Amino acid sequence: MELKLTGKTALITGATGDLGRVMARTLAQCGANIVIHYNANEAKAAQLKQELEEQYQVKAMTVQADITKQEQIEQMQERIGQQLGEVHIVVANAVIQYQWTSVLEQAPADFQGQFDSCVMQSVYLAKSFIPAMKARGEGRFIGINTECSMQNAPTQSAYVAGKRGMDGVYRVLAKEVGEFGITVNQVAPGWTISDRDREAGSEVNEGYSASVPLKRRGTDQEIANVVAFLASDLSSFITGAYIPVNGGNVMPAI
To answer: Which Gene3D superfamilies match (predicted)?
Structure first.
């Protein structure tokens, strides 16, 4: 059994980030053409495009947009259509970064930023890309959530608020578009090892790993593997799911 995405086009928002880059490489390795979305890092996006085209022999393009602005996502959709055609797989990965602190000290703008980049990004992406999926009778809409949505730990409030709001949108959307052959799912990473950790030598954190049943942190590749599975035909009967990829650190209850 092979996981094949040949002939599909995948959009990954925040594709120049630590997790986004590995998702892009993994979906390209499976044969998908890749739309590399970025906000500010044009050079890294161009470098990733060249890498994907040369190493995996797929088509790739870069596109800049502020994912909190509906008109910019609509313009992004138009540019993708002109260059690569319809998008079959959407991965909402981008999120605004900010400094975590207590509810009483967190700036209101941070809550708004998380709402805009978690909830409204997903809404705008759905409005722009799902109509073509409905017309075609198939599609994959995947959001990157977080284990923090279930932890609700001190200082996580703005992040959790944005991601839990995002969770509600995805569950409703899954019910609204399922009849058109579109699946809508979320991947919820734990505290994941990325290139940033490898470069800093900070892969191991014994305090965190002690609470994880598998006794280690996950890797960016393990997150990307689940995204690839959800993007493929192998996941054709899974929708509305929130899937923790965190070694069992949080477990949704029934």
So the answer is: NAD(P)-binding Rossmann-like Domain
Residue pair 141/231 in contact (Cβ under 8 Å)? The answer is no
Q: What is the mean pLDDT of the chain?
A: 97
Nearest 5°: CA angle at 240, between 234 and 244?
80
Cα 13 off chain centre by: 7
Residue 113 to residues 66, 92, 109, 110, 206, Cα–Cα distance (Å): 12, 15, 6, 5, 32
Cα-based angle 53, 49, 90 (whole degrees, multiple of 5): 100
Catalytic residue among 38, 124, 159, 170: 159
Entry field: residues in the chain: 254
Predicted TM-score of the model (pTM): 0.97
Is there a domain that residue 253 lies in? no
> Does 2 reside within a domain?
no
Structure tokens at 2: 């092979």
The pLDDT tens digits for 143-177 are 999 999 999 999 999 999 999 999 999 999 999 99
159 in catalytic set: yes
Helix (H) / strand (E) element for 2: namely none
pLDDT of residue 48: 98
Say if residue 39's pLDDT is above 90. yes
CATH number at residue 39: 3.40.50.720
d(CA 224, CA 187): 9
